[in-house]
Amino acid sequence: MSSKLFRVTRLISASRPAAPIVSRVFNNRTFVSTARAMAATVDSNFISRITAAEKQITNQDEPVAGGPTAQAQSHANQPLTGQVIHDITTGERKITGLDGPVPSGPTSIAQSILDASGSTTGSGASGVLDSETISKITQKEKEITGQEDPVRRGPTAKAQQHTGEPITSEALHDITEGEKKITGGDRVKGGPTSAAQSELAKSRQ
Q1: pLDDT tens sequence across 124-183
Q2: Where are the domains of the chain?
Q3: 178: nearest Cα among 204, 147, 140
Q4: d(Cα 133, Cα 176) in Å, to the nearest integer?
Q5: In the beta sheet, which residues pair with residue 166?
Q6: How far apart are CA 31 and CA 27, in angstroms?
Q7: Ranges in the chain, pLDDT < 50
Q8: Are 128 and 122 in contact (CB under 8 A)?
Q9: Residue 41 β-bridge partners
Q10: Given phi > 0 = left and psi -120 to 50 = alpha, else beta, which region is 97?
Q11: Compositionally biased, Basic and acidic residues: which spans (predicted)?
């Protein structure tokens, strides 16, 4: 079989039309590989999108020192990870004064790019407050409030403050404080804090 393959390979190599076909396949593979890498990298396109989202909030042409664009630039040419998103969230809080990210803001854009790239560490049991885990916390919050949008300083907002970080006792404490805000002072069984604890437990199995 190996000898047959060798003869076929020699015939293809010797054939004139085969060269461009091989070239096209190679180029296509290179393009796909590059596209995937770019989708999960803090490149110029990514930073431009963060800058555009920041401008929508500040109405200024220049990025704010320590803001989301500056945080993204500090990770230029690095892989897009939860830690990068956490830093962008910190920068976003600096320009908004809010506890959590705003819809279609820099953090939201960064998280959507990370999700689309398929490079998220979130498998639903990563032990990290990634988009998958925060989404579960948000769902539990909606079940309590009956509202589509998360409550300011509620469990989702508290979880977003720790985006990309491990689910620690401090993070759980903050989520619990957010949960108490929407329940009137009590934790509920199967609520946002329980969702976070469940993800942490799964990640340790």
Answers
A1: 456 788 888 888 999 999 999 998 888 888 999 999 888 878 888 888 999 999 999 999
A2: 44-117, 131-203
A3: 140
A4: 15
A5: 128
A6: 6
A7: 4-39, 120-124
A8: yes
A9: 79
A10: left
A11: 138-152, 171-189
Structure tokens at 200: 């942490």
CB 182 within 8 A of CB 151: yes
Please tell me the pTM assigned to this model: 0.52
* Cα–Cα distance, 37 to 45 (Å, whole number): 13
Tokens standing for residue 56: 């929508």
**Rounded Cα–Cα distance for residues 119 and 125 (Å):** 15
φ, ψ of residue 41 to 5 degrees: the values are -125, 145
Contact (CB, 8 A) for 43 and 77: yes
Q: Which amino acid is at 156?
A: T
Q: Check: CB of residue 184 under 8 Å from CB of residue 148.
A: no
Where b means 16+ CB within 10 Å and e means fewer, 180-205 reads bbbbeeeeeeebbbbbbebbbeebee
Distance CA(158)–CA(171), nearest Å, equals 8
